[in-house]
Amino acid sequence: MSDTPTTRVPCPYALGATFSLQISPPQGESFVAEAKVVHVYAPFTRSSVMKVALTPESTGTTLPDEAILKVYDRRFANDQDARCSFE
Known about the structure:
Elements: E1 18-23, E2 31-41, E3 48-54, E4 66-71, H1 80-83
Antiparallel strand pairs: 1-2, 2-3, 3-4
């Protein structure tokens, strides 16, 4: 067994969390959209799934007000219940 200490990383995929999303449309310039988590679909399995609200500054005519964000983050791919609090 290794003597290397393990560091627990808090789960970033929680209600109220905000993310900057790099959007690369098929045509046109890429841009950044700000997203706030408004609902978490828990428990997580291999991917974290959340409903996010896109901020008014980042939504243009091509983006909806809300979207589903699905993230595969291997730090949280297994044993989600032990690492993420869904309350």
